[in-house]
Amino acid sequence: MRVVFSNRAYASVLAETTEKIKTETGGLFLGTVQDDTWYIIEAIDPGPKSIFEVAYFEYDQKYTQHLINKIANLYDKKLTLIGLWHRHPGSFDQFSSTDDGTNAKYASMREEGAISALVNIDPTFRITMYQVDRPCRYKKIEYDVGDNLIPDGLLKFKTPERFYSMMDNILYPSVTSRTTDGYHKSVSLASFMKFILPQMKDEECTDVETNNLLGDESTQEHLIDEIVDDLTFMADTLGIETAISLDDRYLTVYQEAIDKTTKLYFMLSVVKHAVVLSYDDKCFTYRRGLFTEAFGKAKAERERKDGSESRVKPRKQAGVIDSVIKIIRFNRNEE
Ligand SMILES: [Zn+2]
Question: Please, which residues have CB less than 5 A from ligand 1, an ion?
Fold first, then answer.
């Protein structure tokens, strides 16, 4: 296992360290994991409202989330948050207990865990790279720097044509749904839910204890963390436009249509120790990636049926998968 920085990502870490040379700083890594290698394609700064102290650091979440979306949207392949780095004073190149908490949170985001790097200047710049297993076990790993060490596809931006077609999809949705059998409907949130619900039988639960919900600032962050992968999949791969609103206890994912507004309510149940989804008078135990997984199963099932009954509808499949619209709006309810 090793880590490869793109030239740009490595320069970004150096630039951020240089700029804040007299204080502490850090940042986040965007990239992907392939064949046991962590590719850091972009390193983003922690934001103007970040706080870095000797035993404590905090990223400017609004800023970093904004930047992650912006940068990820440029690239052809999907980039995700794979890790983080921060500087430590002197030669201290191990994690503090506060760091453990942060690292564990990042490691919980994906199967492979996360990477977490420490920068020391003692007296010159050096990086110690760690892989963080779930829940929070560290392994020192090697890293290299160089675009030439990165598979071509990972550094590519979306082509102008891809952007044109995304613009078209957003501005003239009817043009992309040329067929009249209504496949454009499948980018509606309601039909997406209808499509995947049969695959979520096991997650169904009896009721939501609305008096046993957690509600504070970190709840909102936690809920966003949990569902962001599914929302990205829905937006990037399926072209489902949704908006999000947040209040103390609920995160609502919704889509307004002419006839009705489809709403999914996510909340954190104290009793179940889990994220609970309420939709259409039903309640489900939600986990990260549940929708993506259910969609995969539903699609496989439909392909099996289509394959055995007729092969008349390949266009329909392609249409859903090809449509790429990414609009996730974050609206914070101020009440
Ligand atoms: Zn630290």
Answer: 96, 99
Contact 52, 24 (CB under 8 A): yes
Distance 61 CA to ligand 1 centre (A): 18
CA of 96 to the centre of ligand 1 (A): 5
CA pair distance 136, 191, nearest whole angstrom = 39
CA separation for the pair 16, 72 (Å, rounded): 20
Question: Could you state, in order of their start, the residue ranges of all structural domains in the chain?
Answer: 2-155, 160-332
Q: With 0-12 CB in 10 A as exposed, 13-18 as middle and 19+ as buried, what is 207? A: exposed
Could you tell me the pTM of the whole model?
A: 0.56
Distance 93 CA to ligand 1 centre (A): 9
Per residue in 113-125, pLDDT (tens digit) is 999 999 999 999 9
Q: Are 30 and 71 in contact (CB under 8 A)?
A: yes
Please tell me the distance between residue 118's alpha carbon and the centre of ligand 1 in angstroms: 8
Give me ligand 1 centre to Cα 113, in Å: 18
* CATH code, residues 2-155: 3.40.140.10
Cis-peptide, bond into residue 123, ω within 30° of zero: yes
Q: Phi and psi of 76, rounded to 5°?
A: -70, -45
